[in-house]
Amino acid sequence: MNLLAFDTSTDVMSIAAQRTVGGVAQVWQQTAVGGAQTSAHLIPVIQRLMAQADLRFDQLDAIVFGRGPGSFTGLRTACSVAQGLAFGAKVLVLPVDTLLAVAEDARCQCVDPARPRQVTAMLDARMDELYMACYSFESDVWSQTKDPGLIRPEDLDADDDVTLAGNVFTTYGDRLPVSAALRVAALPTAGALLRLAPALLAAGGALPADEALPLYIRDKVAKTTAERMAEKAAA
Questions:
Q1: I need a labelling partner for 66 at 20 to 30 A (CA). Which of 6, 8, 174, 195 fits?
Q2: Terminal CA-to-CA distance of the chain, rounded, Å?
Q3: Is 61 in the same domain as 126?
């Protein structure tokens, strides 16, 4: 299976190209600073990795991308690049929830293959909130047990056997539940997208290029001046 995968939903830009030769998958990947630099650097990095993998875009089985939730600018960049490349190469796109990729990245980091079974995946949503969703890993398959949502850190509810995963611990660590069994710093990496892709493709997750759309959880992207002044006064 030949795949191109990328995620630009956070401040970290992650890209990977996978080429399968003789039944063996080889992966070329790169991580770089994302955020405001994503739109300028994503396509050049993709072109470089595709060249290293000796792959043409029309040889891809799908273009895999993190669809959100996450940075508004990052998600729009990912969707537009996925659409453009897929249209030009006449290949399908595979949108993947970024929080599912966070859960997969955390699973891959754990030394014990039996863990984690239950994962609460989180990404920093700014404005004192988190994007979160819950997943269960059984028989080598992920299932979603709680839909993606937006909450304040102190409102997160986690059982003793749940693994917390994401990029939120530096900013919100002291406001998260202490009952969780494990905390894992994790991101929606391109490597995680590649590992998730075969099962999602087998389940019919591939879509036409024009359906490369973002998953937004929040419509409001910034606080008003009045809200910021009120917070400052309260502090």
A1: 174
A2: 54
A3: no
